[in-house]
Design a protein that fits this description.
The chain is mainly α. Helices cover about 80% and strands about 0% of the residues. It contains 11 helices and no strands. It has helices spanning about 1-10, 20-40, 45-50, 55-60, 70-80, 85-120, 125-135, 135-150, 150-160, 165-200, 200-230. The relative contact order is 0.07.
Amino acid sequence: MLDVGIRIIVLRLQFWKIWVNYVDVAVTVVSFMEVLSFAVPVKVNAAIFRLLRIGKLARAIRMLPVTNALGSLQLLVKGLVASRGMLFWSFCLLTFLQCVAGMVISTLCRDYLLERISDAPNSQAVQDVFLHYGTFSRTFLTMFEILFANWGPPARILVDNVSEWYSIFFLLYRCVLGFAVINVVNAIFVQQTLKTASSDEELSFKQKEKDIAMYANKEMEPSIWRSFRNW
């Protein structure tokens, strides 16, 4: 708490231009609130503060030395930071497509649910369809499950219980969104990572140092054997 205050006083506006400092401020505020909760008799769930303590581990990242062993970690972090805008818009695009697909499925399942709930509300098929596609939130979660997880069971529920024509929808959904869109997004992320690795001067300098050290070790080994034979 004291070190953060001193850095704010000394650095002033420069302190807020470094994103890691925001982590320090957040950890300091959480620690202060934790101490205040023990001083003031207020009912606060202690588990919340225990979970927030995990944020203190982020401060330890700043103390790690940037060595060759951590070069891959540094490249990974810089690649994620450089791709934050692309990550946001990719998430927005996928969310929009999931919402559209979810609304289409919910509309198609609405008549089936209204008809079968009045006739056989305790039917297992009706319960399965409602648990996966009964509301927008359930359908939205099911769409993410179909895209990123095991898509067979949610698709089989509609194909086996409602209509076999749903198989065409799920096949097109998986081929267009699950294959084409996801692979394009992955390729763009790989391109951004390679661009970050090639344009980063610090990483390039460390890679050159590593190559020079390896070359020096290879050149040193024959000279050692020759001196050993002459001895």
